[in-house]
Description:
With about 170 residues, this protein is an alpha/beta fold. It contains 5 helices and 5 strands. The protein has a 5-stranded parallel sheet with strand order 1-2-3-4-5. Strand 4 (about 95-100), helix 4 (about 120-130) and strand 5 (about 135-140) form a beta-alpha-beta unit. It starts with a strand and ends with a helix. The relative contact order is 0.11.
Amino acid sequence: LWISMGDPAPQAPQGGKVQAAATAIRPIAEAAAKIGCTVALYNHGGWFGEPENQVAIVEQLKMPNVGIVYNCHHGHSHIARFPELLRRMQPHLLAINLNGMVIDGDKVGKKILTLGEGDQELAMLKTIRDSGWRGPVGILDHRPETDSEETLRANLAGLQKLRQQLAEAAKN
């Protein structure tokens, strides 16, 4: 189950926000555990979408079925600090969803890009590869104007191009 929320306690200090989010998520995670499901905190922007806050919530909960799904298309503002964020998220990371990435893409009309169309995802993929993380990697289809199969094919072609660039860079 992917969970997102806003600021759970707008007037509270950081610790109060983390506690409020953990309190809201705990019954969901307990119910999910009873049926063998995991709960992934989804970075959909705002306070809750910041990876540092999600790590704090997961660590507050201390539940084995709670982690993080990191969606690159909601992380344009995280690009400069992505290596550090990945390191901090990695113990709790359940999946990463890729996207073509440009700095501040969400602010310049480039939030959703096909893989290979951005100028930042190669470095981000290198960071993921070099981190040793070997979990699920996804591609989301957030383009209602195109057919999902067409979107997937374009993203897979972009991913293949990026994989070749990663391989070539590793040789040098």
